[in-house]
Amino acid sequence: MSEKPFGKSEKGAALLTVLLLVAVLAILAAHGIDRIAGAAKLTSNARELAQAQAYMVAAENLGMETAQQITAASPGRTTNLGDWNGRPNRVPVEGGIITASISDGGNCFNINGLVRQEQNIFTARQAGLDQFVRLMGLLDVPQGDAIDIAASVADWLDSDTIAAPGGAEDEYYLQSERAYRTANSLIVDISELRAVKGVDTTIYARLAPWICALPIAELSPVNVNTLKPEQSLLLEILSENPVNSVEIRQFLGRRPETGFSSVGDFWSRPVPARFGADSEVQRQVKVATRWFRLDLTVEMQSALIEEQALVDAGLQPARLVQRRRGDTL
């Protein structure tokens, strides 16, 4: 018995089925290729990120070594000779580039200087509060707000639970929608200030370029040999008496190239002599640098790492004591 030949409609259906199968296979093949390409890209990105992280560690080590060399070059006196302070350096490396700068990490307002430490107890420091209020005044923060913010930051840092006038302790923060408590310890990163009563986005933006959080409960160790004229505000807030901002900038601009020989040499000059600074503030001023700030960036084809770090050159050897890093792909 002979087989019945396919009709035209049946041949068409078979052809359509074959074409559909080919289309599905093509889609699956394309999807597989995409998956393989994606996996390869992820592997490449991970490899680049690992390489960038290795470069960052090398840059940190070089920064620590540089800080040590700067302090060793002129023991007891750190100046801007050599144009090292804040100058960016770009170093090509295999697959990317490293950008690094080192600057005086003590030429900022140390927010942790609002308290003093005795054993494990932190108590408010009036000189730090006064300087912080002056700083905010120069940054156009209303005086009433500035006084309350300074008190609130001191309450955030100090060990007791009694709020200072205008300040805030646990009782205030526990009433927030997302309740929390004060740190009762030194601030590690200045972004922590955003949690303090009175520090809104606008005020934080004004303060951030001038504030640092050194890991010590001491007044800002301003080095008058490395302080730049554009940073004169940090010198201005040390004065108990009204001072002329322009005069202070000019004073820093006319500073001896080799810097002031001693703290006494600085305070004997006519401009700072008019500050009316007491002995605690006079000891605050330095002519040598202990803290160095590193600003590091590693750029690869598909990876970017940015870091700010703090080096303590008072230790032997110099040591990295703070790090804030962001990794992106």
From TrEMBL:
Domain of life the protein comes from: Bacteria
T2SS protein K first SAM-like domain: residues covered: 107-215
Gene3D superfamilies cross-referenced by the UniProt entry: EpsJ-like, GSPII I/J protein-like
Record InterPro entries: GspK, GspK_central_sf, Pilin-like, T2SSK_SAM-like_1st, T2SSK_SAM-like_2nd
Cellular compartments per GO CC: plasma membrane
Subcellular location as annotated: Cell inner membrane
Residues in T2SS protein K second SAM-like domain copies: 222-273
BP GO terms, sorted: protein secretion
Keywords for the protein's UniProt record, in alphabetical order: Cell inner membrane, Cell membrane, Membrane, Protein transport, Transmembrane, Transmembrane helix, Transport
A Pfam family: T2SSK_1st
Family: Belongs to the GSP K family.
Name of the molecule in the record: Type II secretion system protein K
Gene source species: Parasphingorhabdus marina DSM 22363
Lineage start: Bacteria, Pseudomonadati, Pseudomonadota, Alphaproteobacteria, Sphingomonadales
